[in-house]
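<context>
A single protein, sequence plus fold
<entry> Chain with its tokenised backbone below
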Amino acid sequence: MPVEHLENTLSEQTDYALQSNADGAEQHSNGSTHHHHQHYLPHLHVHHRQRHAKFRSRLGLAAEHPVDEEHSILTVDRHNLWWPRVRSIFREPFAEFWGTFVMILFGDGSVAQVLLSTGELAAPGGNGFGPYQSISWGWGLGVMLGIYVAGDSGGFLNPAITFCFCFYRSLVNNDLLRNLPWRRFPIYMISQVLGAFLGSGVVYANYIAAIDSLEGPGIRSVPPVKTATAGIFCTYPQPFLTKVNQFFSEFIASSILMFVIFALKDESNQGAMGKSGAGKLFPLALFFLIFGLGACFGWETGYAINLARDFGPRLMSFVVGYGPGVWSAGGYYFWVPMVAPFCGCMFGGFLYDLFIYTGPESPLNSPYFGLKRYFGVGPSVERPTTSESERKETLAKDAV
């Protein structure tokens, strides 16, 4: 339901409730308090629904929060519960926060276990508790489980992916939300970065004794120091890479990521999943995609492919004492995993839509490859609204 339509409906309901409240007050003057409260509570209910819808729309969120009707707090007997009200307003940002939080727990946790246990003779095989592939497993599982946690928000977990869905898919394939997604991007991005920041903080707290054992109490170092542990939390490039090499490594991995995600979400692409997209298997498919990226493209730069995943933990490592080296290491590499994922994901999405995708919501399937939509380039072309199209189709059928 469009926000404007919802607000108009709620306004009508409010007027009705106010009139009913007045009637109830008149009855109350005649000694009937029961009817007064019956009418007053619906008025409060409608009032809270209207405020709720307006607040969410300002954040770029749908007017109605994604929750089962029987769980909704927008009922007469639950409208005055303050935390359920807050949760219903910020449900999707909270989902992105906790989804990214879970992703970082498993991803950074796997790096910590492999790095800190290297050479442990007590481990099976006598050489630590995990090879490099354990890191690919950890990140794959983290992404899969994070998507399950953040399902109500879309499970983006990555500002670059969120940006691409805003640009190429209007965030959701829904005509009623076409005017909302760009306003939604900032709060999603903030939620993702905060989730990564706090998730890496939990990993640091869990492994602080092991870090002290390896580096020494109070000593914190960054690569290329041999005993550096900063790489647990964010990515650092191999020392032989030039800046171009660093950027291209992140760019190509991000391009593959976005290209395959669009394929998995394309309901018109039969692929191996049938003509319905990956559907409920999407998180599992992402597990294999992330595992493959780590196994094939992870060594040179650590395949950050995600601003939130890299910047949030990098900031956390700076706060806990790793020092300014977290920014200057690798020739001030820190900006590469912030910029390259956006460039790579945009390129990967462009390739998929240019050569494979046929859906009308992609700007590449509109006049002048979307330049008209975003920049006003080209002659004015009026696209019929959904209601107009349906009306014309109905008229044509009637004529037949």
User: Anything to note?
Assistant: The longest helix spans residues 181-215. Residues 3 and 63 are 6 Å apart (CA to CA). The mean pLDDT is 81.
